[in-house]
Write a structure and sequence with these properties.
Blueprint lengths: L4 E5 L3 H12 L3 E5 L3 H20 L5 H9 L1 E4 L10 E4 L5 H14 L5 E4 L6 H5 L10 E6 L8 E6 L5 H13 L3 E6 L6 H17 L5 H11 L6 H8 L1 H14 L9 H8 L18
Parallel strand pairs: 1-2, 1-4, 2-3, 4-5, 5-6, 7-8
Antiparallel strand pairs: 6-7
Helix pairs in contact: 1-2, 7-9, 7-10
């Protein structure tokens, strides 16, 4: 089935980026939030991103207008009825996601593909929220932030995901100009299974007083040639998100290297979530 109309549920950090990249390749995008003002704010963020691209000469104004013109902000869940693909990008919480998927399943066409942008939650557990007939068209489609820049998509197959669904997502990912990797439905999938123990070990290194946050990050950037230090990266991802993924890994796999460090739990409990709050392992100027 060709994918022309994409319904993006969630207009936040990930959702607006997912909407932008699909609109940029000619797809008609519906950007949904239950609060219309949040959906409109997501569309405005996309417009702002494109304005900066025009200013840098990467896009002309006609292209910018055409992309924005293909994006509709809405608070009407019933608009999913015309979608070929739904990409869910809401808060990383099993019950929040399952509640939304149940409502979408009641409204969407039988042929519509459902894709979750989850970074760690089991696809099979999410798919329990939809009808058994839908589950072959239920898949994980994990984008990376910032979506317009990061060239990777992680496809996660549930136990019922069909080859036809995988093929459709492969074709779409190719059209987006992104590289696709495929993961089985295991805790953390591929990328976060590798990444989170690295971040956790950097946090424990700080917690134990082995080095400062600046020295730990500089060691990774200069000594390991990483583009960003692990504590900087955790702040960028969001410490609440890191904690959630680590909990999934620790509960699903076990092993002390997956256990969330106490310093991470403390920062999250205090509301210091990284760049988005102005403080995490580092501090950030607030705009």
């Amino acid at each position: 089935m060709p994918i022309d109309r994409v319904f993006v549920a969630g207009a936040g950090l990930m959702g607006h980026g997912i909407g932008q990249v699909h609109a940029a390749i000619g797809k008609h995008v519906t950007l949904y939030e239950p609060d219309l003002a949040r959906a409109q704010a997501g569309r405005e963020r996309i417009a702002g991103n494109l304005d900066r691209a025009v200013a840098k000469g990467k896009l002309d104004s006609d292209q910018r207008d055409a992309i924005v013109g293909r994006i509709l902000a809405t608070d009407d869940l019933d608009l999913v009825r015309s979608a070929d693909l739904v990409v869910e990008a809401v808060f990383e919480d099993l019950e929040v996601k399952r509640g939304l998927w149940s409502k979408l399943d009641e409204r969407a066409s039988e042929a519509t593909i459902f894709a979750s942008n989850t970074s760690s939650i089991s696809i099979d557990r999410l798919a329990e929220a939809v009808s058994p007939a839908r589950r072959e068209r239920f898949v994980g489609m994990h984008f990376f932030s910032p979506v317009p820049v990061m060239p990777l998509v992680e496809l996660i197959r549930g136990s019922a995901t069909s080859d036809a669904t995988e093929a459709a997502i492969r074709e779409l990912t190719d059209a987006l100009g992104k590289k696709l990797i495929v993961s089985a439905d295991r805790p953390g999938f591929i990328v976060n299974r590798i990444l989170m123990p690295l971040l956790a070990e950097a946090m424990r290194t700080l917690e134990e007083g082995t080095g400062t946050a600046d020295d730990i990050d500089t060691g990774a950037r200069v000594g390991l040639n990483h583009p960003m230090g692990p504590l900087e990266l955790a702040d960028f991802i969001g410490l609440d998100v890191c904690l959630g993924v680590m909990n999934v890994l620790y509960e699903g796999i076990g092993g002390e290297h997956f256990k969330p460090p106490a310093i991470l739990e403390r920062l999250v409990a205090e509301g210091h979530l990284g760049q988005k709050t102005g403080r995490g392992f580092h501090t950030y100027p607030r705009s």
